[in-house]
Design a protein that fits this description.
binds alpha-D-glucopyranose, 37% helix, Immunoglobulin-like, TIM Barrel, alpha/beta, eight-stranded parallel beta barrel
């Protein structure tokens, strides 16, 4: 039996179930087309990738290894070109990174392109970055250095410059059928009755009248991003070809951009509908058969209850995405710092269902997008609060309009009807570093640095792959240059998308500089992870009560690799915990407890009370667990 035949047998039931759900009686024909695409002669899967396929099938926890550290960057802002990105590989290795999410690599439309999320061609590279060959070379360089590449698969929409959109505007009916379009405003109005707006101020509405078509086009995001019609099987077949093409280049993880929006259903908010999950499940099976070295990351920034299904946890477990952004943890981290209290975070995270053991979270502090304050009303009510009130507090706090606020963010996506307000601003701006630097206030700067490292300490210690947002490792300031660029001025997400500043990067080795403090802190987290088996993503994690509302505690447990108790002091004051506050570690003799982040600190071993400095994070574990439970050797990276 060939490998292909074996994999087909293994994944076919998954593929069939997804296709039946999506296309009913047409499923068999679609299956045949997909299998043809997978087996096509024009595919050029190299021997090296075929070997990677096997290695990863045999060690499917390759992406769950505790040593995995991610980094997210715009290709141009990080390296100028793809060749420039290759030159940054030693920098990433110095930081401990082995997973790189490069944004805005594939060919976008000319002009405004939503930061590269409006794609003209999924099989070509943005000309300003280089060529497809440059991408191939970069991937080789990265793989040789042990780095994995994450690329976006923008799947809710193409740009209006994509060949399908262009052909549709030239009158091609088949091409038109790839999109959701309407001859008049009646159906759009009916959908609009229950649809939220993603960009209420930048791009209001969900539909755009396109004169060349004389039709309304569904455009959830911007007018130039046309939503695909996933109920048309050709969309799935052609996107699968794109997926295989990218996998055959050697892309390790495909980030399913805006996957939640791919299923539309009248009378709903058209997010996280069953069809969106079926599409992800179908793509998962296509990769399982055709390119098992490549896995899927869900970019589903949705309500906490809707998130875990993207990792395949449904009424009956399915194989869907392998990784998903932990948006809740990110939001609750910022919430704890603003409030100095941890009850809401503990309650909300306790209530979240656990993801399947073979999957993992992607944990993060900031990214290129705005922060939506996804505080669940029920969670807030459970702790005696009010969801809307807390969301209002967070947006006011992080725009800097609240007493004692240290943040310098800006409003984004303000919705005058719902009262919703999201926030823009980079990590340093939101943590108080920028404000302190401007005011020349050393004590405030110290607290700002501690806040940044606290949030990263949580993201790195929760389990899953932690992602460093480009520049955070040197406390990068925001960049307001976008305001004089007519294509970007209206979108203040560009604030947190600066070019990597080489001077700041160079200061990482200058003792006493902010850059060096942050760099050392992030480096320490990265190094500690590799030596911390309980952080293997296959374990479980839950918040714990540690006897002090100012301190957030969490417990990671892995059946083979032991336990870790994380602690985060959410306040600028020193807190003291009683030695018996952590019964979770009680199996180990008190004398063996170590703070992995500060192993020389004897106070946690003393068996008496121990303290947490302002915003300090500790990862406590029993020494024996570190020494005696090696994690299985990772597959070749
Ligand atoms: C994702 C991207 C965001 C983009 C949107 C539409 O959320 O992260 O930057 O605007 O998708 O593609």
């Amino acid at each position: 039996m060939t490998e292909l035949a074996r994999r087909t047998e293994h994944w076919l039931p998954d593929l069939r179930a997804a296709l039946r759900g999506l296309y009913g009686e047409r499923a068999a024909a679609v299956e045949a087309q997909l299998l043809t695409a997978i087996g096509a002669d024009e595919r050029t899967r190299s021997a090296v990738l075929a070997e990677r396929d096997l290695a990863r099938e045999l060690a499917p926890d390759w992406f769950q290894q505790p040593g995995r550290i991610g980094y997210i960057a715009y290709a141009d802002r990080f390296g100028g070109t793809l060749k420039g990105v290759a030159k940054r590989v030693p920098y990433l290795r110095e930081l401990g990174v082995d997973v790189l999410h490069l944004m805005s690599v594939l060919r976008p439309r000319a002009g405004e392109d939503d930061g590269g999320y409006a794609i003209d061609d999924y099989r070509d590279v943005a000309p300003s970055l280089g060529t497809l060959d440059d991408l191939r070379t970069l991937i080789h360089t990265m793989h040789d250095a042990g780095l994995n590449l994450v690329l976006d698969l923008v799947m809710n929409h193409t740009s209006d410059g994509h060949a399908w959109a262009q052909a549709a505007m030239a009158g091609d009916e088949e091409a038109l059928a790839h999109y959701l379009t309407y001859p008049d405003a009646a159906l759009p109005a009916a959908f609009d009755a229950t649809l939220p707006e993603v960009f209420p101020d930048l791009a209001p509405g969900n539909f755009t009248f396109v004169e060349q078509l004389d039709r309304w086009v569904w455009t959830t995001f911007n007018r130039f991003q046309w939503d695909l019609n996933w109920s048309n099987p050709t969309v799935l077949v052609e996107m699968s070809r794109n997926v295989l093409f990218l996998a055959d280049l050697g892309v390790d993880v495909l980030r399913l951009d805006a996957v939640a929006f791919t299923g539309k259903r009248m009378g709903t908010n058209c997010q996280s509908q069953p069809a969106a999950h079926l599409v992800a499940q179908a793509l998962r099976a296509v990769l399982g058969i055709g390119a098992p070295a490549t896995i899927l990351l869900a970019e589903a920034i949705v309500a906490p209850g809707d998130l875990v299904p993207y990792l395949g946890r449904h009424e009956r477990e399915r194989r869907e995405c392998d990784l998903a952004y932990h948006n809740q943890l990110m939001v609750l981290g910022w919430s704890m710092l603003a409030e100095g209290r941890t009850t809401l975070a503990r309650t909300a995270l306790e209530r979240m269902p656990a993801p399947p053991q073979r999957t993992g979270w992607l944990t993060y502090v900031r990214c290129h997008d705005d922060i939506g304050w996804a505080i669940d009303d029920t969670d807030a009510a459970t702790v005696g609060g009010d969801g809307q009130g807390h969301r209002d507090f967070l947006s006011a706090f992080y725009r800097g309009d609240f007493p004692m606020s240290f943040a310098e963010g800006e409003p984004f996506g303000v919705n005058l009807v719902t009262g919703d307000e999201r926030t823009c601003g980079g990590t340093a701006a939101l943590c108080g570093i920028s404000q302190a630097l401007r005011g020349g206030d050393g004590a405030a700067l110290d607290l700002g640095v501690r806040r940044l490292l606290a949030l990263y300490g949580l993201a790195f210690g929760w389990g899953g792959i932690p992602m460093i947002y480009m520049g955070d490792e040197v406390a990068h300031a925001d960049d307001t240059a976008y305001r004089s660029d007519p294509e970007r001025a209206h979108d203040n997400r560009w604030r947190q998308r600066p070019h990597l500043d080489d001077a700041a990067v160079a200061r990482r080795h200058q003792a006493g500089s902010v850059e060096s403090r942050v760099w050392q802190g992030v480096r320490r987290l990265a190094a500690a992870r590799g030596e911390c088996p309980p952080l293997h993503a296959g374990g479980s994690v839950r918040p714990i009560w540690v006897g002090d509302e100012a301190v957030f505690g969490w417990l990671r447990e892995h059946p083979r690799h032991g336990k870790l108790v994380g602690l985060l002091n959410a306040t600028p004051l020193t807190r003291t915990l009683a030695s018996d506050a952590l019964p979770e570690l009680s199996t180990a003799a008190a004398s063996t407890v170590t703070d992995v982040l500060d192993p020389l600190d004897a106070s946690v071993r003393s068996g008496r009370a121990f303290s947490l400095q302002p915003y300090q994070v500790r990862w406590l574990t029993a020494e024996s667990e570190l020494a005696t439970s090696p994690v299985s050797a990772p597959a070749p990276a």
